[in-house]
Input
Amino acid sequence: MPRSTHPRPPTASQQLEELLGFPWPFPGRLPKYDLSTWTVTDDWPEHIPVTEAEVDVFERWFSDLFDELFGPDP
Output
């Protein structure tokens, strides 16, 4: 008895190609980047304001990681 064949859903690359109108991943070799020409710029202010709500979010989501890195609260 022959198996019924169900069409496979399109892959992520096929979906992107249909959406963008050109192949993904792009055909050909990946571009080679010359890292020696890159410049890193730090334009952050010296002090960055953080609210109590932001601190609470980080403590809630990353408390296990913080405890592992810095030890539990005294």
Observations:
- Helices lie at 12-20, 52-70.
